[in-house]
């Protein structure tokens, strides 16, 4: 093991550049997947004829596919249909689609957890379905679904490492390059990578636990 050589200023700078791209990738995917997942979850909860079952079928299909397959398809399959993305945006699209399917199920379950008595009481008081959804179901349901959504975001951050397969210069990609010339760098570099992932994911897990405790 060669910690001094592995942690040279140039290597650390290169690794942190990859970590920065990993965080940026995760942030954009979190934003896009949350927005899309909320829309899909609400539409499934609304029970709109034809539309809701179609969305449900699409969500279940995506949830049962490997994320790695979606990344490959977005990067190498879609160009065959005339749709091309750079490695960065291919990873964004694949992560967004996959995580949105997961989040939509969390949203739907959260909305379904709202007591039916509250819904019936709001409707009997003269509120429309949309008003009930906006003022009663969504506020209560969203508070209940925050912890599992944060947990899903933790999984998303870890899943960004799969983008190494399409040569995106994220943390694992850069770590592989640093480890390549000298096998003595493997343990120090992987240790640093583990610490970086752990620091972010542990922080998010603490936030999720506190939110869950506050909700209880």
UniProtKB/TrEMBL annotation:
<dbReference type="InterPro" id="IPR035906">
    <property type="entry name" value="MetI-like_sf"/>
</dbReference>
<keyword id="KW-1003">Cell membrane</keyword>
<feature type="transmembrane region" description="Helical">
    <location>
        <begin position="85"/>
        <end position="103"/>
    </location>
</feature>
<keyword id="KW-0812">Transmembrane</keyword>
<feature type="transmembrane region" description="Helical">
    <location>
        <begin position="21"/>
        <end position="43"/>
    </location>
</feature>
<feature type="transmembrane region" description="Helical">
    <location>
        <begin position="185"/>
        <end position="208"/>
    </location>
</feature>
<dbReference type="InterPro" id="IPR043429">
    <property type="entry name" value="ArtM/GltK/GlnP/TcyL/YhdX-like"/>
</dbReference>
<keyword id="KW-1133">Transmembrane helix</keyword>
<keyword id="KW-0813">Transport</keyword>
<dbReference type="InterPro" id="IPR010065">
    <property type="entry name" value="AA_ABC_transptr_permease_3TM"/>
</dbReference>
<protein>
    <submittedName>
        <fullName>Amino acid ABC transporter permease</fullName>
    </submittedName>
</protein>
<feature type="domain" description="ABC transmembrane type-1">
    <location>
        <begin position="19"/>
        <end position="208"/>
    </location>
</feature>
<dbReference type="Pfam" id="PF00528">
    <property type="entry name" value="BPD_transp_1"/>
</dbReference>
<comment type="similarity">
    <text>Belongs to the binding-protein-dependent transport system permease family.</text>
</comment>
<dbReference type="InterPro" id="IPR000515">
    <property type="entry name" value="MetI-like"/>
</dbReference>
<keyword id="KW-0472">Membrane</keyword>
């Amino acid at each position: 093991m060669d910690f001094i050589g592995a942690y040279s200023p140039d290597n650390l700078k290169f690794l942190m550049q990859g970590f920065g791209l990993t965080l940026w990738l995760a942030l954009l995917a979190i934003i896009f997947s949350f927005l899309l997942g909320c829309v899909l979850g609400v539409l499934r909860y609304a029970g709109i004829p034809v539309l809701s079952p179609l969305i449900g079928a699409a969500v279940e299909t995506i949830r049962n596919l490997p994320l790695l397959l979606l990344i490959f398809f977005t990067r190498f399959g879609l160009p065959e249909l005339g749709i091309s993305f750079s490695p960065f945006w291919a990873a964004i699209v694949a992560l967004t689609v996959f995580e949105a399917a997961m989040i939509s199920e969390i949203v739907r379950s959260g909305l379904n957890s709202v007591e039916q008595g509250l819904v019936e009481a709001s409707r009997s008081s003269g509120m429309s379905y949309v008003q009930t959804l906006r003022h009663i179901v969504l506020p209560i349901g969203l508070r209940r679904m925050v912890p599992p959504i944060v947990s899903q975001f933790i999984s998303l951050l870890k899943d960004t490492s799969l983008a190494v397969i399409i040569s995106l210069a994220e943390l694992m990609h850069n770590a592989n390059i640093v480890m390549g010339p000298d096998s003595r760098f493997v343990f120090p570099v992987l240790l640093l990578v583990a610490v970086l992932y752990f620091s972010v994911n542990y922080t998010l897990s603490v936030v999720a636990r506190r939110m869950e405790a506050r909700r209880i």
